[in-house]
Amino acid sequence: MADDERAEELETIVAIYPELQIDEKDQFRFFLDIAVSPINPATISYPGSSGTDLDDENDRASAILHHLPPIKVDMTLPEGYPESNPPTVKLSDPSAWIPASKLKELEELATALWEDYGHSMIIFTYLDSLQQGAETAFDVPTTPTWALPTHDLGITLIAFNASSAQRIFDGETHDCGICLEPKPGRLSHRFNGCGHVFCRACLKDFYGDAITKGEVANVLCPDSTCGLRKIGPKRTRRTKRTIDPAELLAIGLDREAVQRYVDLKRKRKLEADKNMVYCPREWCQAPIKSAKYPPQPILEDISYASDTGDEGEAEPLAEAPVQPAPVPAEPATTTTAKEPPKPNKAPDDRLAICSKCQLAFCRVCKASWHGEYLYCLPRSAAELSAEDKASYDFVLLHTSPCPTCSVPAQKTYGCNHMICPQCETHFCYLCSMWLDPGDPYKHFSREDLPCQGHLWDAEDGNEEGAQFNGPRAFEAMAMAIAEAEAELDAQVGPGVES
Q: For the RWD domain, which residue ranges apply (predicted)?
């Protein structure tokens, strides 16, 4: 009769838990994993590196976990169950996130339930109690932030949480926001930062085309609402974060395309840095080696987790500005012994090494490296070549600077509402004034501004007769004065005062 009761109860339990496994050697022994997905996600903190002291708050990392490793149930129904003997339970946790004392307490719960229910069948009741306990992670986290004892345990739990979330995602169906078709999770990608979902085929085409065209600023989450935040009653701004190289690899882009993406991002940052120094060799002209912009190889674990800028660029490391060579002090009038000259305070500020041809040269005078004891002077504007001067004059006369980043812009056609290609600031082409992105055309209707009614000046790109103001007008005025003075000097002749 007892065997029949055990077999009957096990048959019922197998129907409720189809994932339950019966021991091949003992028909009354079974194994089951109890999934642990707390209703309230667990916030953990753990040592930032192996060997870090648990109490060292300065070197601890944190994470939020929605899934924890399961506990393994090894349960046997002995002879005499349920009339005279309770079930035998052995619980284990291979990842060791549950204390041994808690496992012992949960094991003893089976006997307590058997006693409370008057020596009756309690397998379902016990397993259900474990599942209810799993909703609170068995009360193992006793504080809002669960302090883990070791770095390795933190990494193990984070990895399990990620794999569990991915497994659940792969088993679901998601609507792609690009092709608008339902796709299985295994063919879709969910972005790490924002959680938006698109199918991988659409993302590969979208990002591959953008990278081929060099439009790295468009390698963003395609969702139009991603990153929007209010900056005023009627104004919003989109914080743009470009996609991590590792995430592009996960989407399925080939390594060559991702390497080009990384190189283009670095190139854009170099071009935007007004203090970047380039190799003086005409056949090279590569940027110097810099901790600010290190070359980025393609690695699966590469990450820009700190991306917070409009383009998602990671904050560069601080780099000391170039210090001009100091003026040598007057020599001492009396000396008893010849002392060696003292080096400049920071000679490394002047030493630059080309990242391509490895030329070591001076940042100030652009000559090959002359050592830290030689004083040099920066090259003056008079040393500019005629070609460089002509190029500089053209930029001053025929472009309008962005009011935010000063990048020069030249209009080919259209209205005078401009958007900077570098920082996406809205500004007026005529006066370089910042424009409100929410209503950029209000600027051209204000009666107190000289740009009123001039929205379409130089619509076809021909700037003759256009009414410029601000920096553009000042440069043109200064240029005209300089030309007039040069013409007057030519008429009067050298050595004659006017």
A: 8-137
Residue from 222, 192, 183 nearest 205 by CA = 222
Could you please report the per-residue DSSP string of 343-404?
PPS-GGGTEEEBTTT--EEETTT-SBP--SS----PPPGGGS-HHHHHHHHHHHHH-EE-TT
Cα gap 46→24, rounded to integer Å = 41
Q: Give the 3-state DSSP-derived string for 187-203, with helices as H, strands as E and coil as C.
A: HEEECCCCCCEEEHHHH
Q: Which residue has the tokens 């590196």?
A: 49
pLDDT of residue 228: 74
What are 212-268's pLDDT values in tens digits?
999 888 899 998 888 777 666 766 666 777 888 989 999 999 999 999 999 898 888
Domain count for the chain, please give it: 3
365 in any annotated domain: no
pLDDT value of position 328 = 34
**Host domain of residue 215:** 173-272
Is 211 in the same domain as 103?
no
Band (pLDDT 50/70/90 cuts) for residue 302 is: very low
Stretch (H or E) spanning 46: strand 42-47
Query: For residue 28, what pLDDT is reported?
Result: 93
Q: Is 381 a member of any domain? A: no
| pLDDT surpasses 60 at 300 | no
Q: Which residue has the higher pLDDT, 476 or 172?
A: 172
97 within 8 A of 141, measured Cβ to Cβ = no
How many whole angstroms separate alpha carbon 428 and alpha carbon 430?
5
Contact of 66 with 38, CB cutoff 8 Å:
yes
Q: Rounded to the nearest 10 degrees, how much is the dihedral formed by the CA atoms of 204, 209, 215, 220? A: -20
The residue from 164, 194, 214 where one domain ends is: 164
Cα-based distances in Å from 461 to 322, 397, 422, 467, 482: 39, 14, 21, 13, 26
CA 244 to CA 249: how far, in whole Å? 9
Find all residues with CB under 8 Å of 357, minimum gap 6, and list them. Answer: 279, 281, 284, 286
In a domain, 448, yes or no: yes
Sign of CA dihedral 73, 78, 83, 88: negative
Pair 68, 138 in one domain: yes
